[in-house]
Amino acid sequence: MTDTNANAIPIEAFPTPVLQYSVVEDRPLVTATNDSFAAQFGGVSSDTPITSVFDRFETVETSGNEDPESHIVRGDTSKIYLDGTDGGPFLGQIVPIDDTSGYLVFSDLRDQPDASRSVGVGQVASMISHDLRNPLDVAQAHLRAAQETGDAEHFEAVDRAHDRMMRIIQDVLTLARGDSVVDPSETISLEDTVAAAWQTVDTERAELRVPDTLPEVTADPDRLRRLFENLFRNAVEHGSTETTPDGREDARAQNTPTDSGAVIIRVGALDEDGFYIADDGPGIPEHERELVFEPGYTAGGSGTGLGLAIVQQIVEAHGWELLLDLSESGGARFEIHT
Protein backbone atom coordinates (compact mmCIF):
# COMPACT_ATOMS: atom_id res chain seq x y z
CA MET A 1 0.00 0.00 0.00
CA THR A 2 1.44 3.42 -0.97
CA ASP A 3 1.42 6.19 1.63
CA THR A 4 0.95 9.69 0.24
CA ASN A 5 1.50 11.51 3.55
CA ALA A 6 4.42 13.91 3.15
CA ASN A 7 5.57 13.31 6.72
CA ALA A 8 5.57 9.52 6.41
CA ILE A 9 8.73 7.44 6.22
CA PRO A 10 8.79 4.46 3.82
CA ILE A 11 7.97 1.61 6.17
CA GLU A 12 10.73 -0.64 4.81
CA ALA A 13 13.24 2.03 5.86
CA PHE A 14 12.81 0.92 9.47
CA PRO A 15 15.34 -1.76 10.51
CA THR A 16 13.03 -3.20 13.19
CA PRO A 17 9.46 -4.62 13.08
CA VAL A 18 6.98 -1.83 12.31
CA LEU A 19 3.29 -1.59 11.53
CA GLN A 20 1.68 1.54 10.16
CA TYR A 21 -1.83 2.51 11.22
CA SER A 22 -4.61 4.98 10.50
CA VAL A 23 -7.34 6.04 12.93
CA VAL A 24 -10.82 5.59 11.42
CA GLU A 25 -13.85 6.51 13.54
CA ASP A 26 -11.70 6.41 16.71
CA ARG A 27 -10.32 2.96 15.88
CA PRO A 28 -6.69 2.45 14.80
CA LEU A 29 -6.47 0.11 11.80
CA VAL A 30 -3.36 -1.53 10.37
CA THR A 31 -2.51 -0.06 6.95
CA ALA A 32 0.88 -1.69 6.31
CA THR A 33 3.67 -3.74 7.90
CA ASN A 34 7.31 -4.17 6.93
CA ASP A 35 9.11 -7.43 6.20
CA SER A 36 10.73 -7.45 9.64
CA PHE A 37 7.29 -7.32 11.27
CA ALA A 38 5.99 -10.18 9.12
CA ALA A 39 9.03 -12.30 9.99
CA GLN A 40 8.55 -11.70 13.71
CA PHE A 41 4.77 -11.63 14.10
CA GLY A 42 3.35 -13.09 10.89
CA GLY A 43 1.10 -11.38 8.39
CA VAL A 44 -1.60 -8.84 9.26
CA SER A 45 -4.16 -7.80 6.66
CA SER A 46 -4.78 -4.14 5.87
CA ASP A 47 -7.72 -2.53 7.67
CA THR A 48 -7.41 -5.04 10.51
CA PRO A 49 -7.98 -3.44 13.95
CA ILE A 50 -4.63 -2.97 15.66
CA THR A 51 -6.10 -4.59 18.76
CA SER A 52 -5.91 -7.92 16.93
CA VAL A 53 -2.13 -7.73 17.31
CA PHE A 54 -2.42 -7.08 21.05
CA ASP A 55 -4.90 -9.96 21.43
CA ARG A 56 -2.10 -12.40 20.60
CA PHE A 57 -0.42 -11.69 23.95
CA GLU A 58 -1.32 -12.57 27.52
CA THR A 59 0.24 -9.39 28.95
CA VAL A 60 -0.42 -5.98 27.40
CA GLU A 61 0.63 -2.93 29.44
CA THR A 62 1.33 0.72 28.64
CA SER A 63 3.67 3.34 30.07
CA GLY A 64 0.70 5.68 30.37
CA ASN A 65 -2.56 5.48 32.27
CA GLU A 66 -4.86 4.27 29.46
CA ASP A 67 -5.30 1.20 27.29
CA PRO A 68 -3.05 0.90 24.19
CA GLU A 69 -5.82 1.74 21.70
CA SER A 70 -6.65 5.01 23.51
CA HIS A 71 -2.99 6.09 23.50
CA ILE A 72 -2.73 5.34 19.79
CA VAL A 73 -5.91 7.26 18.97
CA ARG A 74 -4.68 10.27 20.98
CA GLY A 75 -1.26 10.12 19.34
CA ASP A 76 0.67 9.74 22.60
CA THR A 77 4.30 8.73 22.14
CA SER A 78 3.76 5.98 24.70
CA LYS A 79 5.33 2.55 25.12
CA ILE A 80 3.36 -0.73 24.97
CA TYR A 81 4.74 -3.85 26.68
CA LEU A 82 3.69 -7.21 25.18
CA ASP A 83 4.48 -10.68 26.49
CA GLY A 84 3.24 -14.28 26.45
CA THR A 85 1.47 -16.68 24.03
CA ASP A 86 2.84 -15.21 20.79
CA GLY A 87 6.36 -14.76 22.14
CA GLY A 88 7.98 -11.80 23.79
CA PRO A 89 8.61 -9.78 25.67
CA PHE A 90 8.37 -6.94 23.15
CA LEU A 91 8.23 -3.18 23.56
CA GLY A 92 6.12 -1.20 21.07
CA GLN A 93 6.71 2.56 20.68
CA ILE A 94 3.97 4.78 19.20
CA VAL A 95 5.43 7.22 16.65
CA PRO A 96 2.71 9.58 15.30
CA ILE A 97 2.83 10.85 11.73
CA ASP A 98 -0.12 13.24 11.99
CA ASP A 99 -3.45 13.46 13.83
CA THR A 100 -4.84 10.25 12.32
CA SER A 101 -1.89 8.01 11.49
CA GLY A 102 1.43 6.76 12.75
CA TYR A 103 3.75 3.81 13.30
CA LEU A 104 4.09 1.22 16.05
CA VAL A 105 7.81 0.37 16.26
CA PHE A 106 8.72 -2.87 18.07
CA SER A 107 11.83 -3.87 20.01
CA ASP A 108 12.59 -7.47 21.03
CA LEU A 109 13.35 -7.35 24.75
CA ARG A 110 14.74 -10.87 24.79
CA ASP A 111 18.06 -9.47 23.60
CA GLN A 112 18.12 -6.76 26.29
CA PRO A 113 19.86 -6.87 29.69
CA ASP A 114 17.81 -8.32 32.55
CA ALA A 115 17.56 -5.55 35.15
CA SER A 116 16.71 -8.08 37.85
CA ARG A 117 20.23 -9.52 37.63
CA SER A 118 21.82 -6.24 38.66
CA VAL A 119 19.71 -3.40 39.98
CA GLY A 120 22.29 -0.77 39.09
CA VAL A 121 24.05 -1.73 35.85
CA GLY A 122 21.16 -3.82 34.49
CA GLN A 123 18.58 -1.09 35.01
CA VAL A 124 20.73 1.61 33.43
CA ALA A 125 21.73 -0.60 30.49
CA SER A 126 18.10 -1.59 29.95
CA MET A 127 17.00 2.06 29.92
CA ILE A 128 19.68 2.99 27.40
CA SER A 129 18.91 0.13 25.03
CA HIS A 130 15.12 0.52 25.22
CA ASP A 131 14.81 4.31 25.12
CA LEU A 132 17.52 4.97 22.54
CA ARG A 133 16.24 2.35 20.11
CA ASN A 134 13.16 4.31 19.02
CA PRO A 135 14.80 7.68 18.15
CA LEU A 136 17.68 5.78 16.56
CA ASP A 137 15.28 3.81 14.36
CA VAL A 138 13.42 7.01 13.48
CA ALA A 139 16.69 8.77 12.57
CA GLN A 140 17.81 5.87 10.38
CA ALA A 141 14.46 5.72 8.61
CA HIS A 142 14.38 9.48 7.95
CA LEU A 143 17.98 9.39 6.72
CA ARG A 144 17.12 6.69 4.19
CA ALA A 145 14.05 8.65 3.12
CA ALA A 146 16.17 11.80 2.71
CA GLN A 147 18.67 9.94 0.56
CA GLU A 148 15.85 8.71 -1.68
CA THR A 149 13.80 11.93 -1.89
CA GLY A 150 16.21 14.77 -1.07
CA ASP A 151 13.51 16.29 1.15
CA ALA A 152 15.17 18.57 3.75
CA GLU A 153 12.36 17.94 6.26
CA HIS A 154 13.74 14.45 6.79
CA PHE A 155 17.09 15.92 7.89
CA GLU A 156 15.26 18.10 10.40
CA ALA A 157 13.63 14.96 11.81
CA VAL A 158 17.05 13.31 12.09
CA ASP A 159 18.29 16.33 14.04
CA ARG A 160 15.33 16.12 16.44
CA ALA A 161 15.95 12.42 16.97
CA HIS A 162 19.62 13.07 17.74
CA ASP A 163 18.65 15.77 20.26
CA ARG A 164 16.36 13.31 21.99
CA MET A 165 19.08 10.64 22.12
CA MET A 166 21.49 13.14 23.69
CA ARG A 167 18.92 14.05 26.34
CA ILE A 168 18.29 10.39 27.16
CA ILE A 169 22.03 9.75 27.50
CA GLN A 170 22.45 12.74 29.81
CA ASP A 171 19.52 11.62 31.98
CA VAL A 172 20.72 8.03 32.25
CA LEU A 173 24.27 9.12 33.13
CA THR A 174 22.90 11.37 35.85
CA LEU A 175 21.01 8.44 37.38
CA ALA A 176 24.02 6.14 37.04
CA ARG A 177 26.37 8.55 38.82
CA GLY A 178 24.06 8.83 41.80
CA ASP A 179 24.98 10.87 44.89
CA SER A 180 28.66 11.05 44.02
CA VAL A 181 28.15 14.03 41.70
CA VAL A 182 26.38 16.16 44.33
CA ASP A 183 28.47 18.70 46.28
CA PRO A 184 26.04 20.77 48.40
CA SER A 185 28.65 23.19 49.72
CA GLU A 186 27.79 26.57 48.19
CA THR A 187 25.26 29.24 49.11
CA ILE A 188 23.17 29.55 45.97
CA SER A 189 20.75 32.25 44.82
CA LEU A 190 17.51 30.51 43.83
CA GLU A 191 16.51 33.50 41.67
CA ASP A 192 19.71 33.25 39.61
CA THR A 193 19.37 29.46 39.34
CA VAL A 194 15.74 29.69 38.20
CA ALA A 195 16.66 32.27 35.55
CA ALA A 196 19.56 30.16 34.27
CA ALA A 197 17.46 26.96 34.14
CA TRP A 198 14.64 28.74 32.30
CA GLN A 199 17.06 29.74 29.53
CA THR A 200 18.14 26.15 28.88
CA VAL A 201 14.64 24.67 28.41
CA ASP A 202 12.32 25.11 25.42
CA THR A 203 9.82 27.38 27.18
CA GLU A 204 8.28 29.07 24.13
CA ARG A 205 4.87 27.72 25.19
CA ALA A 206 5.27 28.51 28.87
CA GLU A 207 5.23 31.57 31.11
CA LEU A 208 7.33 31.89 34.27
CA ARG A 209 6.03 33.82 37.27
CA VAL A 210 8.04 34.41 40.46
CA PRO A 211 5.65 36.18 42.86
CA ASP A 212 7.97 36.11 45.88
CA THR A 213 11.54 36.90 46.76
CA LEU A 214 13.27 33.55 46.63
CA PRO A 215 15.64 32.49 49.44
CA GLU A 216 19.23 31.36 49.18
CA VAL A 217 20.01 27.68 49.77
CA THR A 218 23.10 25.59 50.39
CA ALA A 219 23.31 23.31 47.40
CA ASP A 220 25.30 21.92 44.50
CA PRO A 221 24.80 24.62 41.82
CA ASP A 222 24.84 22.30 38.80
CA ARG A 223 22.46 19.75 40.35
CA LEU A 224 20.10 22.47 41.58
CA ARG A 225 19.87 23.96 38.09
CA ARG A 226 19.21 20.47 36.70
CA LEU A 227 16.37 20.07 39.22
CA PHE A 228 14.68 23.23 37.94
CA GLU A 229 15.34 22.32 34.30
CA ASN A 230 13.65 18.95 34.72
CA LEU A 231 10.64 20.35 36.57
CA PHE A 232 10.22 23.14 34.00
CA ARG A 233 10.49 20.63 31.16
CA ASN A 234 8.00 18.31 32.85
CA ALA A 235 5.48 21.14 33.19
CA VAL A 236 5.90 22.19 29.55
CA GLU A 237 5.67 18.64 28.16
CA HIS A 238 2.59 17.69 30.15
CA GLY A 239 0.84 21.00 30.65
CA SER A 240 0.83 22.90 27.35
CA THR A 241 -0.31 22.37 23.78
CA GLU A 242 3.14 21.11 22.98
CA THR A 243 4.89 19.79 19.88
CA THR A 244 6.08 16.21 20.19
CA PRO A 245 9.57 15.05 19.12
CA ASP A 246 7.97 13.88 15.88
CA GLY A 247 6.81 17.38 15.00
CA ARG A 248 3.05 17.06 15.60
CA GLU A 249 0.97 19.05 18.04
CA ASP A 250 0.19 17.19 21.26
CA ALA A 251 -3.49 17.52 22.13
CA ARG A 252 -3.27 15.67 25.46
CA ALA A 253 -3.32 18.79 27.60
CA GLN A 254 -5.20 21.69 26.07
CA ASN A 255 -7.01 22.69 29.25
CA THR A 256 -4.67 25.51 30.20
CA PRO A 257 -6.32 28.90 30.87
CA THR A 258 -4.24 31.03 28.50
CA ASP A 259 -5.48 31.66 24.96
CA SER A 260 -2.07 30.71 23.56
CA GLY A 261 -2.15 27.27 25.18
CA ALA A 262 0.89 28.19 27.28
CA VAL A 263 1.31 26.68 30.72
CA ILE A 264 1.96 29.09 33.60
CA ILE A 265 4.77 27.98 35.91
CA ARG A 266 5.21 29.58 39.32
CA VAL A 267 8.26 29.39 41.57
CA GLY A 268 7.93 30.64 45.12
CA ALA A 269 9.19 30.39 48.68
CA LEU A 270 7.55 28.11 51.25
CA ASP A 271 6.45 29.52 54.60
CA GLU A 272 9.08 27.31 56.19
CA ASP A 273 12.46 26.49 54.68
CA GLY A 274 12.26 25.58 51.04
CA PHE A 275 10.61 26.44 47.75
CA TYR A 276 7.96 25.17 45.31
CA ILE A 277 7.42 24.84 41.58
CA ALA A 278 3.75 24.78 40.50
CA ASP A 279 1.93 24.84 37.17
CA ASP A 280 -1.63 25.20 35.91
CA GLY A 281 -1.59 22.12 33.67
CA PRO A 282 -3.74 19.00 34.04
CA GLY A 283 -2.01 17.88 37.25
CA ILE A 284 -0.97 14.38 38.30
CA PRO A 285 -3.69 12.02 39.60
CA GLU A 286 -3.20 10.95 43.20
CA HIS A 287 -2.75 7.28 42.29
CA GLU A 288 0.17 8.18 40.01
CA ARG A 289 2.09 10.48 42.37
CA GLU A 290 4.47 7.81 43.57
CA LEU A 291 4.80 6.14 40.18
CA VAL A 292 6.00 9.32 38.42
CA PHE A 293 9.31 9.13 40.29
CA GLU A 294 10.02 5.61 39.01
CA PRO A 295 12.73 5.56 36.29
CA GLY A 296 11.11 5.01 32.89
CA TYR A 297 7.56 5.94 33.92
CA THR A 298 5.78 8.39 31.61
CA ALA A 299 2.17 9.59 31.81
CA GLY A 300 1.98 10.49 28.14
CA GLY A 301 5.14 9.08 26.65
CA SER A 302 6.59 12.32 25.29
CA GLY A 303 9.40 12.53 27.82
CA THR A 304 12.28 10.17 28.63
CA GLY A 305 10.60 8.91 31.80
CA LEU A 306 13.74 9.80 33.76
CA GLY A 307 13.32 13.49 34.54
CA LEU A 308 11.36 13.22 37.78
CA ALA A 309 13.47 10.27 38.96
CA ILE A 310 16.48 12.58 38.63
CA VAL A 311 14.67 15.33 40.54
CA GLN A 312 14.01 12.94 43.41
CA GLN A 313 17.61 11.74 43.36
CA ILE A 314 18.92 15.32 43.55
CA VAL A 315 16.57 16.18 46.41
CA GLU A 316 17.52 13.09 48.42
CA ALA A 317 21.24 13.62 47.79
CA HIS A 318 20.93 17.08 49.40
CA GLY A 319 19.08 15.63 52.38
CA TRP A 320 15.90 17.53 51.46
CA GLU A 321 12.28 16.35 51.28
CA LEU A 322 10.14 16.30 48.13
CA LEU A 323 6.34 16.48 48.24
CA LEU A 324 3.98 16.32 45.25
CA ASP A 325 0.49 17.76 45.41
CA LEU A 326 -2.05 19.74 43.37
CA SER A 327 -1.47 23.44 42.76
CA GLU A 328 -4.21 26.00 43.47
CA SER A 329 -5.23 25.85 39.79
CA GLY A 330 -5.32 22.03 39.75
CA GLY A 331 -1.93 21.47 38.17
CA ALA A 332 1.15 19.87 39.68
CA ARG A 333 2.93 21.40 42.68
CA PHE A 334 6.37 20.16 43.74
CA GLU A 335 7.49 21.28 47.20
CA ILE A 336 11.16 20.97 48.18
CA HIS A 337 11.71 21.33 51.91
CA THR A 338 15.37 22.15 52.61
Map the helices and strands.
Elements (H helix, E strand, L loop, with lengths): L17 E7 L2 E7 L1 H7 L9 H4 L4 E4 L5 H7 L4 E5 L6 E9 L2 E8 L12 H29 L2 H26 L8 E4 H10 L6 E4 L6 E4 L1 H19 L23 E7 L5 E5 L27 H11 L3 E6 L5 E6 L1
Parallel strand pairs: 8-10
Antiparallel strand pairs: 1-2, 1-6, 3-4, 4-5, 5-6, 7-9, 10-11, 11-13, 12-13
Helix pairs in contact: 4-5, 6-7, 7-8
Descriptive tags:
single chain; 338 residues; alpha+beta; Beta-Lactamase; Heat Shock Protein 90; six-stranded antiparallel beta sheet; five-stranded mixed beta sheet
Describe the overall structure.
The protein has helices at residues 35-41, 51-54, 68-74, 121-149, 152-177, 190-199, 221-239, 307-317; strands at 18-24, 27-33, 59-62, 79-83, 90-98, 101-108, 186-189, 206-209, 216-219, 263-269, 275-279, 321-326, 332-337. It has a six-stranded antiparallel beta sheet. Strands 8-10-11-13-12 form a five-stranded mixed beta sheet. The chain has a two-stranded antiparallel sheet with strand order 7-9. It has eight helices and 13 strands. It has three domains: 1-109, Beta-Lactamase; 112-181; 184-337, Histidine kinase-like ATPase, C-terminal domain (Heat Shock Protein 90, 2-Layer Sandwich), CATH 3.30.565.10.
